[in-house]
Amino acid sequence: MSFRSLLRVAIFFTGVWAAIIVALSLLGEPFLFFPSDSNTALFPPLYRYETLRLTFFSLFAYFSLQQVFAPEKKYSAAQIVTITLFFLGYIGAIKIIPDGHLGKETGVLVAIILVAAVFYFGSQPRIKKIFGRR
Q1: Side-chain half-sphere CA neighbours of 59 within 13 A
Q2: Which domain holds residue 53?
Q3: What's the rounded Cα separation, in Å, for the pair 122 and 116?
Q4: pLDDT tens digit string along 77-86?
Q5: Which residue in 12, 32, 58, 80 has the most C-beta neighbors within 10 A?
Q6: Tens digit of pLDDT for each residue in 14-54?
Q7: Cβ(91)–Cβ(58) below 8 Å
Q8: How far apart are alpha carbons 125 and 69 in whole angstroms?
Q9: Residue 22 contacts residue 54 (beta carbons within 8 Å)
Q10: Of all helices (H) and strands (E), which one includes residue 133?
C-alpha cells in the first residue's frame, strides 16, 4: 500500500468519524460536547457554538469524502462559501427550531440563507458572463 493510499484511507475514516459526530449530535446524543452546563450565561448562547461546531464537522465530512471519492472535482471560493453557508443554515435550523429559539434567530437564519443564495446564483457561469470582464 502506497503512502497516498494510506492517506486516502485516513481521510475516509476521519470523514466518516465527523459524519457520525454530526449525526449523533443532531439526533440528540452529542458525542463531543462543550464543557459548559446549561446554566452558564454565555454570549453568544451555547446553541450557536453547537451550530458552528456541527457546521465545521459537516464541512470536514463533506470535503474529506469528496476528496476520497471525487478527487478531480475543483471548487471555486464562491462554491466553498455557499456550501459553508448552506450547512450553517440547515444545521442552525435543525438545532434552533426544536430548542424554541426560532423567534430570536429568524433574522440570522434568513440572512444566512439569502447570502448563500446570492453566492450560489452569482457563481453560475451564465451570471459570471453578465458581470464578468468583457
Answers
A1: 17
A2: 3-35+43-131
A3: 10
A4: 778 888 888 8
A5: 58
A6: 999 999 988 888 887 766 555 555 556 656 777 778 888 88
A7: yes
A8: 25
A9: yes
A10: none
Model confidence pLDDT, tens digit, residues 64-121: 999 899 888 888 777 888 888 889 888 888 888 777 777 888 888 888 888 888 877 7
- What H or E segment, with its residue span, contains residue 108? helix 102-122
CA distance 134 to 131: 9
DSSP-based helix, strand, coil % in the chain, nearest 5: 75, 0, 25
Please, are residues 64 and 11 in contact by the beta-carbon 8 Å criterion? yes
Total count of domains within the chain: 1
Distance CA 120, CA 81 (A): 9
- Residue 134, Cβ density class (10 Å: 0-12 exposed, 13-18 middle, ≥19 buried): exposed
Q: What is the pTM of this model?
A: 0.74
